[in-house]
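Box 3.1 A note on notation
Throughout this textbook, protein chains are presented in two layers. The first layer is the amino acid sequence; the second is a token string describing backbone geometry. Keep the layers aligned when reading.
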Amino acid sequence: MSGRTPRLSRLRRVVPEGRSARQAIAARAGRPAEARGGRARRRGAQPKVVALGGGMGLSASLAALRRITGDLTAVVTVADDGGSSGRLRDELGVLPPGDLRKALAALCGDDDWGQTWARVIQHRFTSQGDLHDHAVGNLLIVALWEQLGDHVQALDLVGKLLGAHGRVLPMSAVPLELQALVKGHDPERPEDVDTVRGQATVALTSGEVQSVHLVPNDPPAVPEAVDAVLDADWVVLGPGSWFSSVIPHLLVPELLDALTETRARRVLSLNLAPQPGETEGFSPQRHLEVLGRHAPKLALDVVLADEAAVPDREVLTEAAKRFGAAVELAPVARRDGTPRHDPEQLAAAYDRIFRMHGRIGPWR
């Protein structure tokens, strides 16, 4: 590990030190939008939207949101420890780039340039050597981190190359480990609660996840991610792996404070189906219950769910009321029967929510 320290310390220079999460937010919130890195409101502007998550769930949300706004920021989890990302993280001591890469690919346009680059950065090598299963985009992102020594600048440069319709930011500038308390992780001890370490292991556990936490347990947020949440008109959380992609954002103190204090309206987008292992057997309202246990002060404005995935709207409505939220049901799933979101349908649902709930923004 000692050989990786210089590289990591150089990359971490963007993280403010010596201030609490609350102090950092207060300092930023007191400045005008331009000084915080955002833009002042202007008539005719599009809604500023921030989407939080990771993996394919966040990609689905971004593919929809880029169709209805050009002012879009993705804030991505950095706890992945499997596959190509895990190997790069172990070997080089860098942030896992995989979920960041997926978010950038989702923001690529539908023209030839965008789709070509989306395929290129998602391409994985097949070989008998060390390059096997590495994604091109992972290598590109890590190379720019090493060249520039700045996570945000490097991701902005990749986005510019791809012509991405939005910005991608890590939620923290340090690699994080996800740990979970799991009941019955060992099938031979179904009543025991064990600590399970690593996002990949948590996602595949056959036991019942009780709670999750991050190591370190007080990780610094990337300042630009906090600024984006504070400056947003709308914040979208989910869909995605509930314990390993959605809830981790609520475990970063500065991000949770920003989500609590922002004037933005907040949408929670529920999954189309329980995830095998991680949320096996979960009802829609159970997803809300575990979210509330991890962030009891979090308020929401809208809970979005696919109408076919909600067996009892009244029960879900009662669960949403505890967050101060209304329930919106819409047909957002693909019609092929798979539990995947349709970008066009999801975009229509988001657009309707943005127009109908709360203020009608100056972009209308």
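Residues 1-20, 32-43, 360-364 have pLDDT under 50 and may be disordered. The CA atoms of residues 171 and 349 lie 26 Å apart.
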